[in-house]
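Predicting holo structure, flavin-adenine dinucleotide bound.
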Amino acid sequence: MDRFDYDFFVIGAGSGGVRAARVAASLGARVAVAEERYFGGTCVNVGCVPKKLFSYAAHFRDDFEDSRGFGWQLPEPTFDWPTLLANKDTEIRRLNDIYKSILDKNEVTVFEARATLAGPHEVQVGDKRVTARAILLAVGGWPWVPDYPGREHAITSNELFHLPTLPKHMVIHGAGYIAVEFASIFARLGVEISLVFRRDKVLRGFDADVRQFVTTELERDVRLYREDDIQKIEKNGKDLCVFLKSGTELGAGQVLSATGRWPHTANLGLEHVNVRLSSSGGICVNDAYQTDEPSVYAVGDVIERVALTPVALAEAEIVARALFGNENTQLDYQYVASAVFCQPNVGSVGLTEEQAREKELDFDVYISTVKPLKQSLSPRDERALLKMLVDRDSDRVIGLHIAAPDAGELIQGFSVAINAGATKADFDRTLGIHPTLAEELVTMRSKRT
Ligand code: FAD
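Done. C-alpha cells:
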C-alpha cells in the first residue's frame, strides 16, 4: 500500500498544469489535477487563443481596405460582434473538451474544484483531504487594477472576452503588450480607442526602436494619452467619465484596465508549507522549480519568470520529467521568442539594444524600415521595421526584432537559427526568397553608425 493517495497533485489545469499532469501520467505516475474555473486556463479561455481570434477578425478591416488597391470593389463591409463572440465561444468549448479529454485519456484523476495546500504533502480539494508525494502549483496569474476611486467600473481582459455589446468609445489603461494588442484590435473593430499610459512610448521592455515604431503606428488609429494616468472614474447612468491626472476628461462606454497581472497566490494555504513569496506575491523556486518546501513545485505565470504559454509548458515538462523520468534539463530563457499581435505584429527574440548595452557587450546594429511590396498598391501606408544586433567578437546574432505583417510567424523560424547560435555570416550566406519581406533579414549589409 502506497503511503500517498497520489504521486503527483497538480493545482491548476491551465497551460502548465495540464502539460505536467499529462507527462507525469505518461511516465507511470498516479496523478490528480484540481481546476476551479476552466480547463486550459488563461491561454485557452481568456488569453492567447480568444485574443488571436479577435486579432484575425480585426485584420479583415485592413484586408478589405488593401483589396481596393488590387481592384476589388466591395460594398462597405459591416461587422457583427455577437457572431464573433458566439463563434469564439464554440471554439473555446471545443478546446476545453480537448484539454479535459487529454487528462481523462491519461487516467489523471480530475477534481473540478478549488484546491489549497494543507501541508507539505496534503491538499484540501473541495471537501476532500488528499495526500501526494509531490505537489505542483500551476495556478497562473490574475489581472490587477490600480487603486483609484471608481476602479470597480473598469473591466479587465477577463470580462472583455464576454462583452455583450461593443462600446462606441473605450479607454484602455496601460501600455504593455495586452493593452497594445487590444487597442489595435478594437480600433479595427470600429471602437474609438483612447490609450492612457504613464510613459512616452508603449511596450516597456521591448527594444526602443520597436517601441517608437509601434507607438507611431498605433497613433494612426488610437488616441494616445502619454505620460498620464487615470485619477478616477465616475459613472453617469450607463456612461463612464474618466478623469486623467493631466486634467483631461474622457467619456467612455467601457474602461479596460490592462495594467498588469499578479501571481494567483492568495488563500492558497501557503501558510501550511515553507514556501517563500517575492514582494509581488510570486512563488520563489530554484532552477528545478522546487520551492523551499522540497515536495512543493511551481511553474508558469505564478513564478514570474516569463509569462508566456510555451514557457509554462516547458517548465511543467521539465518538472514532470525530473520527478518521474529521472531526466534533468534546464530551460534557457535567453532566446525565448515572443510576439505582440498588434498591427503590424511585433516579433522579438534575444537581447534588446538596451539590454546589450547594460551587459556592456560590443555589438553592431543593423536596422531598416521598409515598405512591404503588398503596401505598394494598398491605400494604407503601413511600414515594417527590421532590426538585428550582432556580437562583434563572435559574429553571433544576439537579438532580432521585427515589426511587420505576420512578424509572429517570421520570428518563430528565425528563433530556431538564433537558438542554434547563427552568426551574421550565416544570415549573409543564406539566399533570400524573392519577393518576400523576410528576405530583408538576409540582405542587411549596412551597420548603423
Ligand atoms: P494559467 O493558464 O492561468 O492556468 C492556471 C489555472 O489554475 C487556471 O485555470 C485557474 O483557474 C486554476 N487555478 C488557480 N488557482 C486554483 C486553485 N486554488 N485551485 C484550482 N484551480 C486553480 N501567452 C502567450 O504565449 N501568447 C499570447 O499571445 C498570450 N496572450 C495573452 C493574452 C492575454 C489577454 C492574457 C491575460 C495572457 C496571455 N498570454 C499569452 C499569457 C498566457 O496566457 C499565460 O502565460 C499562461 O496561460 C500561463 O499558464 P499557467 O499554467 O501558468 O497559468
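The pocket of flavin-adenine dinucleotide is lined by residues 11-17, 34-38, 41-43, 47-48, 51, 114-116, 138-140, 157, 178, 264, 268, 300-302, 307-310, 312 (CB under 6 Å).
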